Amino acid sequence: MTGRSQEAAKPSRAPAVTRRAVLDAATRLVEQQGVAGLSMRKLAAELGVAVTSIYWHVGNREALLDELVQEMVHGLETLPAHGSTPTARVLSLAVELRRVLRDHPHLIGLVNERGLTQAMFLPSQRALIAEISAAGLRGARAAEAVRALQYHVIGFILVERHTDRSPEQRPSAEELWQAEPAPDAALAGALATPVDADRLFAVATGALVRSLLADQAPPENQ
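RE: above sequence
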């Protein structure tokens, strides 16, 4: 056998696992199975490596969970703002915040368990403050606007999750509204259809943002 054929006969070596690959695989496992579903053995099997390789890159399971928490915290530092008007830019931040929180429910829960929820939301608060300040709000009014938007986003997500986890509704909304006397048939028909959560979020959040940014002066009786 020639040297070239001997070289071709050698089994190909699997690429060494990287720390980034370990963190990405751990994130996938947590999002698919929850924090309880993350074990070092499952992670090693997912990556096709020995368990010792996982420990070498990220330490033990608790250290790995801490890394995932920090990833989640840092992941909110780069929320983009888009649009040519203050309302559009603030709305785009709210949309992005909802998307990130919806995409990582188990990691959000893990962050909360570690007592780092406030740290996680700080970057999004800074981004909102920058846009709200540019629109003319300052001081306590700006702080109130930031908090109102965060509460709105989080509350919307909680309703969505509750709806997603609820059993099939009987009677359904369609059945209820078909039986409900209503002078506005178009209204009853719309309420009988499934909710378009993305559209509803955009409509509700847009109205809230416009109201907050228009209120640049304190009420007379305050």
